[in-house]
Amino acid sequence: xxxxxxxxxxxxxxxxxxxxxxxxxxxxxxxxxxxxxxxxxxxxxxxxxxxxxxxxxxxxxxxxxxxxxxxxxxxxxxxxxxxxxxxxxxxxxxxxxxxxxxxxxxxxxxxxxxxxxxxxxxxxxxxxxxxxxxxxxxxxxxxxxxxxxxxxxxxxxxxxxxxxxxxxxxxxxxxxxxxxxxx
Length: 183
Prior knowledge:
The relative contact order is 0.09. The protein has 2 domains: 1-107, RNA polymerase sigma factor, region 2, helix turn helix motif (Rna Polymerase Sigma Factor, Chain: A, Orthogonal Bundle), CATH 1.10.1740.10; 110-183, Arc Repressor Mutant, subunit A. With 183 residues, it is an all-alpha fold. α1 crosses α2 and α7 (148-155) crosses α8. The protein has 8 helices and no strands.
């Protein structure tokens, strides 16, 4: 068995999963479907969206099964996919809601100038230099409007870890983007 004191999946199932065996995917889903749903529900706060995110998580896991190393713990791997999937779905849903609320209002939007487009490019490039953990914290706290406590809960880490990742990420971003303030 694999796991630290908890009921785990037999190594053979994980090896078959990594090889793309369909019956292994069903075994993995029966073990991790509930926890993945709980995780996505804690992020999305909507049962239908959480069910969609859970399904998408296992599709993504199935597609990238060949990259899974069966000698490593499975839970962190599948939970990371679930978190990212839920966050992506949350963003899509929020954009959809925002666009539907804008349908009623006539808004004139000015296209960004070359300078604004360059600044957006620079910010995105700076964000891409952050570690995955730092990017997740920034996405949730800055772009998602989550509090440190909400971010900690959705990522399954301590508030102190959220704060330190956030601080480290903002320090890196400030250093990477300092040249924009000088212009």
